[in-house]
Amino acid sequence: MARVTVYNVNKEKVGEVDLNDGVFATEVKPHVIHAVVRMQLANRRAGNACTKTKALVSGGGKKPWRQKGTGRARSGSTRSPLWRKGGTMFGPQPRDYSYQLPKKVRRLALRMALSARLAEENLLVLDAMTLPEIKTKRLVAIMNGLEAGSALVVVPDRDERLEKSARNVPGVKVMPTAGLNVYDVMHYPRLIITQPCIPLLEERLAP
């Protein structure tokens, strides 16, 4: 098992913790992480682009001119895509872009993402991270003291004070353990996990 140092919010060493190799020492395969990130981004797409076909644009109920004898090309409707202000041919319509990968693949990718951050030495374990009140300035001071820069902070449960304090801090996001996902782990260069999260992650992701 990998043993990492546990710090407090002042970046003082307060202990050590062992990490399960099955979760934090998985062989990293970029194509697996890529597949899951693509799935997450596809699932976020709204898919609400919509164009009007010739059946939806207004007008066109009357044939513009008789079929023969005018010398012009025959035409049956002013809503034709060939006409100005006519309908759009083969334009985008509302659709669902979402799809799912097997649960085992998603869990494997998250283990790989965590393992990658640990191997890069970009995973920091804190004993706890709480704020007595919603205070962005205090959170910024903590992040500067930890020299974290842009980071994802993972706490055991939803913490409204932490989340609202981080809302206006560029490059910092706070989320509960249950919401941890591959995209956010890979999006932020640093990963900060509080110690109570580790057994929850190992229980959830252990192979």
Task: Please render the helix and strand layout as text.
Layout: E1 2-7, E2 13-19, H1 21-24, H2 30-44, H3 103-119, E3 123-126, H4 136-146, E4 151-155, H5 160-166, E5 172-176, H6 182-187, E6 190-194, H7 197-205
Parallel strand pairs: 1-3, 3-6, 4-5, 4-6
Antiparallel strand pairs: 1-2
Helix pairs in contact: 4-5
End-to-end span in angstroms?
A: 15 Å
Widest β-sheet, arrangement of strands: 2-1-3-6-4-5
Helix content: 25-40%
Strand percentage lies at 15-25%
Mean pLDDT: 93
Low-confidence stretches: none
Rg, nearest Å: 27 Å
The gross shape turns out to be elongated
Question: What's the helix count?
Answer: 7
One letter per element, helices H and strands E, the order comes to EEHHHEHEHEHEH
Could you say which structural class the secondary elements and strand pairing correspond to?
A: alpha/beta
Quaternary state reads single chain
Number of strands: 6
**What can be said about the biggest beta sheet?**
6 strands, mixed
